[in-house]
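Protein Record: Sequence and Backbone Structure Tokens
======================================================
Tokens: labelled as protein backbone structure tokens, with as many entries as the chain has residues.
Question of interest: how does this chain fold, as expressed in backbone structure tokens?

___
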Amino acid sequence: MNEEFFDVEVRSIQRESSSVVSLRLEHPLGEELPEWEAGSHVDVLLPNGILRQYSLCSETADRTAWRLGVLREAEGRGGSAYVHDELKPGTKIQLRGPRNNFALEPATGYVFIAGGIGITPVLPMVRDADVRGVSWRLVYLGRSRESMAFLEEIQALGGNVEIHADDESGLYPLADLLGGLETGTHVYACGPGPLLNVLQSFADGWDDASRFHCERFAASDQAAAKPSGESSFVVELTDGTEVPVGQDETILQALENAGINQPNSCREGICGTCETGVLSGEIDHRDSLLSDDEREAGGTMMICVSRCKGKRLLLDL
């Protein structure tokens, strides 16, 4: 991943649905943009200083331009409102990345499930599977067709696509969709938390739950829950600096209060921006990103939500 921010220019802004616009981004000097793989997202630093993450939803082979899809979030913190109301073609914004926490693993077949704006990381995956010659199926769910972005583009993908609008057909029968999948088929899902929670509950009953992959735009209920009886602890930096972390603050907040500013964005353990190496200490992982193997290894943590199970952590800072 490119760790440094770089400039891109907003070449065009297009309305894709009643609540989604897409941004076409190009290098200001016409140079090629970095390579990326399906499932990737970028950190976007907007001119008003807000940092957000958006999935790349263009074609991976096209390095002349990138496309982002941005949902207007009524309960958001200002990023999507700025994009929808103030961002103009010709404006330069800064990007960092791409980063991929949702990579498409090899499989004999795929079922892709996208709910609403969750179509953005899934769309390049569908194209990727098609190029590989692997069988795939896409189920695109939305409250109404008016709210669903990229419909014409998705319909053009062919007969393996099912578009389902709740206001036309009611709730989708997810149990039927996931029942009887072949052993080598992997399921990739992105969308609202309640949808992903239901899908996860089905996957938990499989012989191999690792065939289910999801990306969340908000922390899961389990990750967001704050256990009672929080304990204070100390984080130590590689230069010997010690920073106490209180019962009611995160490591990120404690560092900021000590004048140590680390990259961050979501502050919910879902974007990976604040991922930090851990040199020693036992981690209480509370993010929605790391795999079980990564958590067991204990080499990294999301300091915006995760804590220490003991009294001290040595961070690679």
